[in-house]
């Protein structure tokens, strides 16, 4: 069976991925599309034909305006990629507050790192049902943070120099306490495909039992009020018994914030153009969990955790493909 690939809701919802910081969102790649309308008519949508439809299918949502059966999209030459992987964990349960301070500190560096060319995916939790940090052998493996920081067409020595502000910050945090584990791994890939297949080629199970919500975080949300940022992250972390996970989609800035000249033909949420992080919070439940308990988890995601992100970033919004 073949996948619908980029013809589906990924591109029509906006479309984020490991390359979008350098080349733009999925919706920015569309040059034209052939669409079957509800009337049965088959039309071409492009900057020159059916422009309103072209606007709508570029970020306005999948399965809404018609069935896209063919697209013409942009292509790019392969490029080398350097990557730095940072992992942080508390050594014991009593070190979780120091761990959360470190996670908050890392968040404040995202805008400047993005402006220097970095992007990537990460995740963290204070109580994960599965290990977050690969090969971590510490005494408190249920909590951890890991993040990829990739930079295209840049040598690893230059990448490390550009990354040094955060490296120095992490070193100072570790020097200030014995309660944190930190590690750094570096990679130099000859092509984007080598980078993607090694660090980003993750297939998630289909049909998971979980509730999630998200928010786009701009520079103000990430840097202007550290106590507010810490409070929000602690709300997202929740109680250890909630087993909450947060995914950091650090792909904004770059080409996402400087879209092509035809950006006015895009229905992508405008907040994408000024945000650096698409932050996703999720909780799951075990098979057999009753409906009221499931609803309580949904309510916690929407009315507690997403609400906290809305207070932190009141002027942005969310990514429709990963909303609550």
Ordered list of secondary-structure elements with their pairings:
Layout: H1 9-13, H2 20-23, E1 30-36, E2 42-45, H3 51-57, E3 67-73, E4 81-90, H4 96-108, H5 110-115, E5 120-125, E6 144-152, H6 156-176, E7 180-189, H7 192-200, E8 210-218, H8 219-223, H9 226-237, E9 245-250, E10 275-284, H10 291-312
Antiparallel strand pairs: 1-2, 1-3, 4-6, 4-7, 5-6, 5-9, 8-10, 9-10
Helix pairs in contact: 4-9, 9-10
Can you walk through the features of this model?
α9 (226-237) runs antiparallel to α10. The protein has 324 residues and is of the alpha+beta class. The protein is globular, with a radius of gyration of 20 Å. The model has no long low-confidence stretch (mean pLDDT 92). Helices cover 32% and strands 24% of the residues. β1 (30-36) and β2 (42-45) form a beta hairpin.
In short:
This protein is of the alpha+beta class and 324 residues long. The protein contains ten helices and ten strands.
Short descriptors:
324 residues, alpha+beta, 10 helices
General shape: globular
Report the structural category: alpha+beta
Q: Report the biggest beta sheet as strand number plus sense, adding barrel if it closes.
A: 7 strands, antiparallel
Strand content: 15-25%
């Amino acid at each position: 069976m073949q996948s619908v690939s980029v013809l589906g809701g990924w591109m029509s919802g906006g479309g984020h991925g490991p390359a979008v910081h350098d080349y733009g969102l999925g919706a920015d790649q569309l040059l034209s599309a052939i669409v079957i309308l509800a009337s049965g008519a088959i039309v071409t949508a492009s900057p020159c034909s059916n422009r309103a439809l072209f606007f709508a299918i570029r970020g306005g949502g999948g399965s809404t305006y018609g069935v896209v059966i063919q697209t013409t999209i942009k292509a790019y030459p392969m490029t080398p990629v350097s990557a730095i992987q940072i992992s942080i964990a508390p050594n014991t349960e009593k070190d979780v507050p120091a761990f959360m301070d470190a996670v908050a500190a890392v968040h404040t560096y995202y805008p400047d790192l993005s402006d220097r060319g970095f992007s990537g995916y990460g995740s963290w939790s204070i109580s994960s049902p599965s290990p977050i940090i690969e090969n971590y052998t510490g005494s408190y493996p249920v909590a951890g943070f890991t993040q990829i920081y990739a930079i295209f067409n840049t040598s690893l020595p230059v990448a490390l120099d550009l990354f040094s502000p955060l490296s120095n910050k992490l070193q100072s945090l570790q020097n200030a306490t014995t309660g944190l584990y930190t590690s750094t791994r570096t990679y130099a890939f000859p092509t984007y495909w080598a980078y993607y297949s090694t660090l980003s080629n993750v297939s998630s199970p289909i049909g998971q039992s979980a509730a999630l919500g998200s928010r786009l975080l701009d520079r103000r949300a990430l840097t202007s009020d550290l106590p507010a940022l810490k409070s929000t992250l602690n709300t997202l972390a929740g109680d250890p018994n909630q087993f909450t996970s947060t995914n950091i989609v650090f792909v904004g800035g770059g080409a996402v914030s400087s879209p092509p000249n035809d950006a006015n033909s895009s229905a992508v949420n405008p907040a994408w153009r000024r945000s650096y992080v698409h932050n996703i919070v999720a909780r799951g439940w075990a098979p057999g969990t009753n409906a009221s308990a499931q609803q309580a988890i949904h309510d916690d995601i929407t009315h507690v955790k997403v609400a906290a992100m809305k207070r932190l970033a009141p002027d942005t919004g969310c990514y429709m493909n990963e909303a609550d």
